């Protein structure tokens, strides 16, 4: 497993030569004087975080794979790469066209091809290993070059045939194209292109085989890796501590408000805070998190998934608001139309695609939704022989839809509270329970989508609690009982 995981990390680092984006995130500022750490310690922590992030992604994302991505051709880096590669292959061609040919650069390419082919072999493939080493013996090829007796086309054909035996079926067409290429320089260039594709295939095959093992051992692996990071970078829980502290302060404020509004409450008694409730409130904050800020360290591995859930919920909130406003405004006129709410949803969804991009104009989209909904309502009324909406009603409906984006909009605030309540209900369910919480009023039109998002969210949260529960328990103990000593993360996770 270790060898295979190292292969995945190696391919990951080839794609991200400066390390994973997550590995470069700051761990946050420490309230106490920072410990001076060496460069080696810092790099070790970065490598641990890279490995942790990659292992987590492989285990939880069934669609995770390494892709063969290159620089865009019109980019500066793409242009430079194209120029350098063209210069190399042009130089090789001029060498092979000399009389007698100069083979030194070609021999180095054969040496590189040999090493790549050997890297594809599984343990025990001794016969093929010996054959590759024998045919692509660079010392022998160099001796042949001295006598101008190198069968360069024969070597290329052997390489292609060997690639055909080792490649995945998806590369069969690429192998056929290689066999149809006559120009030796172009053939070598294309051989390297297909070998790069085969490297990616091998990495993804390794990932596929590694995933079940990682899934069985991921909790212990992530917890151990994070403990290593924490020992090398003591500030690695600063942002997490701040996140939990803010949640605790919110909970204290809520308890204080309830006490002041309850007659006969004993204001002198110390409030009792539920650690689970504090933690769940913290998780709920992630659904409204400003992802321009650095996320708590213990959630870095799920940052992208949490951000996608937040963006999906924002879209669903708008759809629910549009449907609620339409029903409240013209409900009597459309009450008998079957699936009318779903029709409104089908109007809204395409116009809200990409609403979380910076270039997206939500006001313009809502205006367009308002126009289309008025048209849809009028068409439905006309088909049933009823009078269409007058201009005042249309203006009122379109205006209310357009105002959804305004701060403290009552409809938006109401739907947002109900969405938060529903997502909170997911966190209150035992992790083994598969039933869905009751859907709050006004959300029935997005029920299917909300249940799907809620299930994804609960899955992320429950796994995160399993891994980082001991770290959270220490932080909560320190915040709630600052006089008590706090040691390393304990092995038991706090109750859900």
Q: What would you call the structural class?
A: mainly alpha
Overall shape: it is extended
Gyration radius, rounded? 31 Å
Which ranges are low-confidence, i.e. pLDDT below 50, for 5 or more consecutive residues? 1-39, 491-496
Helix content: 55-70%
User: What is the strand tally?
Assistant: 0
List keywords for this structure.
single chain, 496 residues, mainly alpha, extended, disordered N terminus, disordered C terminus
Describe the fold and architecture.
This protein is mainly α and 496 residues long. 67% of the residues lie in helices and 0% in strands. Helix 12 (303-334) packs antiparallel against helix 15 and helix 16 (410-428) packs across helix 17. The model is unreliable at 1-39 and 491-496 (pLDDT under 50).
Outline the fold blueprint.
Blueprint: H1 2-15, H2 39-60, H3 76-96, H4 104-120, H5 126-135, H6 138-146, H7 152-166, H8 172-179, H9 184-232, H10 238-261, H11 275-285, H12 303-334, H13 340-351, H14 362-383, H15 391-402, H16 410-428, H17 447-480
């Amino acid at each position: 497993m270790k060898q295979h995981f190292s292969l995945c990390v190696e391919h990951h680092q080839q794609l991200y030569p400066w390390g994973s984006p997550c590995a470069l995130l700051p761990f946050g500022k420490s309230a106490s004087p920072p410990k001076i750490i060496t460069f080696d310690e810092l790099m070790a922590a970065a490598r641990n975080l890279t490995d942790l992030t990659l292992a987590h992604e492989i285990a939880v994302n069934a669609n995770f794979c390494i892709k063969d991505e290159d620089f865009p051709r019109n980019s500066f880096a793409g242009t430079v790469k194209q120029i350098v590669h063209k210069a190399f292959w042009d130089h090789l061609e001029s060498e092979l066209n000399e009389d007698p040919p100069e083979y030194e650069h070609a021999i180095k390419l054969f040496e590189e091809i040999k090493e790549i082919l050997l890297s594809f072999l599984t343990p025990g493939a001794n016969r093929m290993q010996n054959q590759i080493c024998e045919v692509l013996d660079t010392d022998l090829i160099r001796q042949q070059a001295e006598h101008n007796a190198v069968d360069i086309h024969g070597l290329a054909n052997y390489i292609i045939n060997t690639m055909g035996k080792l490649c995945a079926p998806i590369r069969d067409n690429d192998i056929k194209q290689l066999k149809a290429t006559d120009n030796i320089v172009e053939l070598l260039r294309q051989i390297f292109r297909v070998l790069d594709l085969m490297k990616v295939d091998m990495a993804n095959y390794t990932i596929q085989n590694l995933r079940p093992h990682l899934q069985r051992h991921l909790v212990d692996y992530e917890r151990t890796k994070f403990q290593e990071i924490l020992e090398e970078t003591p500030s690695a829980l600063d942002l997490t501590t701040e996140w939990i502290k803010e949640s605790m302060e919110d909970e204290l404020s809520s308890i204080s408000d309830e006490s002041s509004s309850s007659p006969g409450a004993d204001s002198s008694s110390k409030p009792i805070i539920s650690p689970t409730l504090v933690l769940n409130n913290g998780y709920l904050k992630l659904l409204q998190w400003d992802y321009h800020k650095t996320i708590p360290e213990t959630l870095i591995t799920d940052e992208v998934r949490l951000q996608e859930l937040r963006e999906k919920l924002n879209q669903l909130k708008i759809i629910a608001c549009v449907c609620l406003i339409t029903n409240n405004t013209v409900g009597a006129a459309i009450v008998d139309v079957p699936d009318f709410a779903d029709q409104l949803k089908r109007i809204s969804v395409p116009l809200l695609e990409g609403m979380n991009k910076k270039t997206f104009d939500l006001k313009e989209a809502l205006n367009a939704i308002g126009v289309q909904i008025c048209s849809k309502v009028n068409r439905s009324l006309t088909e049933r022989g009823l009078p269409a909406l007058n201009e005042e009603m249309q203006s009122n409906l379109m205006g209310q839809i357009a105002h959804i984006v305004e701060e403290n909009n009552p409809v938006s605030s109401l739907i947002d509270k109900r969405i938060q309540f529903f997502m909170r209900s997911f966190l209150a369910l035992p992790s083994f329970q598969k039933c869905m919480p009751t859907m709050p009023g006004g959300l029935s039109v997005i029920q299917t989508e909300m249940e799907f998002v809620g299930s994804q969210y609960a899955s992320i949260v429950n796994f995160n609690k399993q891994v980082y529960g001991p770290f959270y328990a220490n932080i909560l103990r320190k915040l709630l009982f600052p006089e008590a000593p706090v040691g390393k993360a304990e092995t038991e996770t706090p109750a859900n």
